[in-house]
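Structure ticket #2291
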Amino acid sequence: MATGKRTKKAREGIDRNRFYDLAEAVKMIKSRATAKFDETIEVAMNLAVDPRKADQNVRGTVMLPHGTGKTLRVAVFAKGDRAEEAKAAGADIVGADDLAAKVQAGEIEFDRCIATPDMMALVGRLGKVLGPRGLMPNPKLGTVTTNVAEAVKAAKGGQVEFRAEKAGIVHAGVGKASFSEEAILENVKAFVGAITRAKPSGVKGTYIKKVSLSSTMGPGVKIEPSSFAP
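Resolution: structure written out below.
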């Protein structure tokens, strides 16, 4: 019952049909994030793309200026010097065949997976396990690389991966309710900017159809697209 009351109170003063200026939306979402934990601020974007078409796939990474507020657990498939570099950069799990055996057994204790190119024959066999979880290393995302130290630091420092789902929806956590309004604002703009730059050449007309902002337990607020203009 308490949750019902809290949700009802959070929705007060929000017009479901109105498009708000980004700064106003951030203020509203932040002030309504009153759960007993530090809620994640989430952005959802509805794009005019059909991800089933190869030339309309929107996927990539973006560094958020203020990080996500979440500490990612990073696993690295590497051997020798590269393995030592990964450990020194702060990787949580580093291994090769031993790590592959753990993954195969369902022990997936990480949020991001990085691999050196020479490990991809081994990692490729784990596709059925890692793929559905969105954890498969990918050269386009910088997670298949010889520079493992840089990839680990990026993952730990607030890099966010994005990918358009079936209905053309892209969503991501872009901070925490405890962040300042300015930090949330800058993170949202950085994320939307990355999506804008990732526009497939085959998409004509309006690319970003809708953007909304919410917190983990709070209501969503629609944002006026023009408020993202530089």
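Closing remark: Residues 210 and 226 are 11 Å apart (CA to CA).
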